[in-house]
Amino acid sequence: MANKKKTSTEPTKSLVLGENFSQYSLRSSTLQLSSSSAMNDQKELLTFDEDAPISEIIKRLRNIVNCKEIDSSHLSDKKVDIANSLLDVLVFKCTQLTEKALFNAEATLQKNEENEQNSTFSQFQENFSYSDAVRGMRKPHTILVYPAKDSSEATSVEEILKNTIRPEANVKIREFRKFKNQGVAVSCDSVKDIQSIISRLDGDNSAKEKVSHRMPGKRHPSIIIYDLPNTITDQEVQEALRTYTEDGENLRTRFKLKGRKPDTSHWVMEAPHQHFLQLKRFRKIAVNWNMFQIKEFFHVKRVLQINLGRSKAANDTLHPTSDKLQSDLLLLQEPYIYDSQIKGIPQSWNIFNSISNKAAVIIPSRQLHAALISCKQNTVAVKIQTGQQTNTFIAAYSSPYSNIQETLLEIQEIISSLPREKIFIGADLNGHNTLWGYSDVNSRGTAIEEFILANNLFINNSSGAPPTFTRNSSKGWPDLSLCTQQMIGEIANWEVLEEPSLSDHHYIEITIDSSVKNCTFTRYKTRHGNHNIFLKNLKPYVNSLLRAFRNSQNEKDINEATNLLQNCVIEACNKSYRTKNQNLSPTPNWYTQDLEIEKNRLKALRRRAQRAPQDQRNARFQFHKEELKKYMRKVKTAKNSGWKSFCTIATNPYDAHYKAAFRKAIKPAELIALNNQDPSGNHLKIAQDILEKIFPHLANSNSSTYIPPCTANDFPFSKGEVATVIHHLSKGKAPGPDGIDNIIIQQIFKKFPFLLMELFNTCLKLAKFPDPFKVGNIILFHKHGKSKTEASSYRPISLLPTIGKVLENLLTQRLNFHLEKNNRLSNLQYGFREGRSTEMAITKLLDTIHKG
């Protein structure tokens, strides 16, 4: 600076909590300077104060960027647009931290004196700094305890900790959780408590031999290398990566994911910051003279929040918009309803709607499995499994003409039933308050603010964000994004998008940094051949399997042999067959490139209207509104034309178009929290609650043990018996959890018939049904018209291993033959008998009536 001149003696407030940036955050509020004012700005720049507040710096930068000299800007429109966008990002980053600190501090002070709760924003600013506000958000101190590698003790780590750390030790444990490798993470509020645990573990010789401990290391960013062949070793990958980094350190391999191509894997590796920046510059790296794609690896989930305003066109464009933004979860208010159903949504999407259909949670992603927690009049809540914990998402709506306390009470009941859990709320509550953008406060806004404080919630809305609702000349911020304290660290971004929604409301995208944990089952494409390759890969295991079957002398032996058979068959299948991929919902065929170009044009028109001078702004917004109406008509026309074209080109009259129009897809039901059951906990607990209702435990019988008569053993199963059962297996039946379907069983018996015969005859000789064949995958189907919160409203279907079904059919065939041969079945039994049916029972009843 040429001439530094300090004109203020006040202390600097560069990042003081509460500094108001909102008046500088919108481009529409920038000043259009004349030639004389531009000259004044240049003089002011020479006397710039380097200790000025950030708000003053941003104001001057905006004046420089947007100034015009004789109706022409010194920068091109494109550069002005880019500069304003960068300034918006700078303001957003400054305000994001201050707002989170503000709401955290307000929620902490809710039980203090009433005059502190009603204090003004400036008074709050003087009492609390940013560091004071976020001090309560610090993560607790943690120690990781594992079983010792050389220890053969069966005692769990929890029992050792309980025996070592007595209550008199005065160690304040905040959290106690299990994780992989039988380890335990112990969290405390202070370092002193952690040191006390370490000293007691090291001081106890017995505990020192059984467990080991360490402090958690720093988690570095990760990179992912796509489609590496399974034959590549870790050493080869490390050597390839060393050529792209400076000091040549080995990177830790976190885990591997299944590749997109057969016999490949995606490698996820942890890279220190310096190595991460070096590797991130490359799009591909060479490993063994082959190029492989490399990217930054991160688990993020994108949540899209929108009030569709009961617009059919808004519902129609939701699918292509969600596909473009790659949204994983949608929180909707006021969707378009026809015949009591949300229309315009693909049938493959999971839809959870409130009783009034005014709020809905929709999950387009097949990778997310949800559990319905609550379904109320204006509110719906679902739970997503993420790692060891769960995230609950709530969608709610309250009309501006209804009593807001009803909706707030519904949300309150859900929050109260899930104490200390991660909860995210996307709601259109139609309340005015300065905390989320309005310039005034009404009674609804006051009620919402009191609700937020009472439940210790955080507001994710940015005060400098554009309005989430615009209609003609009016605008507002009725859409709120709230979360609990446990989830605030996972909210990576909150943004109002410029994507045209064809509704009065705008899309809100929330990025959540969270990994998702799902249980998936492999299905092989056995109808596409490769059977010879499968049999070739299975052949090396046949002799060892035969020895295992023949050496089985008890229940434990046959269980281990059965497990070995399943593992060998699965290994051969992985090397031979392609796996079935989950069908993702593609962009609809009616959404053409012309519509995408038109949508981008609308976005440009809106930006120009926002930057236009005051005397031209109304005309530009009116022009944008007219063009938006034309776009809505084009969307409706394109959708109708796309459906007609889809039906016209169909060759089979009962193909997909017929099923879409006349057949309602019946999908397996998602998990649901039952009535009178605690909804807290993970998906496993919810599933156990359902299974205990559907399959209750048998009561202990006091009757004496039945002693079977001493009879001769059955003859071994013949090859003809086994061949008949396997030949009649349906090729279209779903397999069990092991993924071995009936086609695989038929191929094994065709090439190695003695293998399955040895297994079945060993089970017959030992009179044991192997435990691995008793493990099934339970699928629930909802009975139409029944309450979703009752276990009796679901029809369970158990998918059992197909090899076990063959053994079951063989035993049933033998048993039916014995009963029929010895006339042990009643003549009045018509069900579950070959050659008889319910029609015969009805005929018998009618004959008896006529004779009477």
The dominant shape is: globular
Question: So how many helices?
Answer: 26
Order of strands in the sheet with the most strands? 22-25-21-20-19-18-28
The major pleated sheet works out as: 7 strands, mixed
Average pLDDT for all residues: 80
Secondary structure: number of strands: 30
Taking pLDDT < 50 over at least 5 consecutive residues as the criterion, the unreliable ranges are 1-48, 97-137
Tally of structural domains: 6
- End-to-end Cα distance, whole Å, is 116 Å
> Helical amount among residues, as a percent range?
40-55%
What structural class do you assign from the helix and strand content?
alpha+beta
Beta fraction? 15-25%
Radius of gyration: 34 Å
Coiled coil: 592-641
GO biological process, one term: DNA biosynthetic process
Keywords: Coiled coil
Protein name: Endonuclease/exonuclease/phosphatase domain-containing protein
Features:
six-stranded mixed β-sheet; Alpha-Beta Plaits; 30 strands; about 850 residues; alpha+beta
Description:
GO terms for molecular function: catalytic activity. This is Endonuclease/exonuclease/phosphatase domain-containing protein. This protein has 852 residues and is of the alpha+beta class. Helices cover 40% and strands 19% of the residues. It folds into 6 domains: 39-101, no CATH class; 140-214, RRM (RNA recognition motif) domain (Alpha-Beta Plaits, 2-Layer Sandwich), CATH 3.30.70; 222-297, 2-Layer Sandwich (Alpha-Beta Plaits); 302-512, Endonuclease/exonuclease/phosphatase (Deoxyribonuclease I, Chain A), CATH 3.60.10; 536-578 and 665-696 and 709-851, no CATH class; 593-662, no CATH class. It has a 7-stranded mixed sheet with strand order 22-25-21-20-19-18-28. Helix 14 runs parallel beside helix 15 and helix 18 (593-611) runs antiparallel to helix 19. 28% of the residues are buried. The model is unreliable at 1-48 and 97-137 (pLDDT under 50).
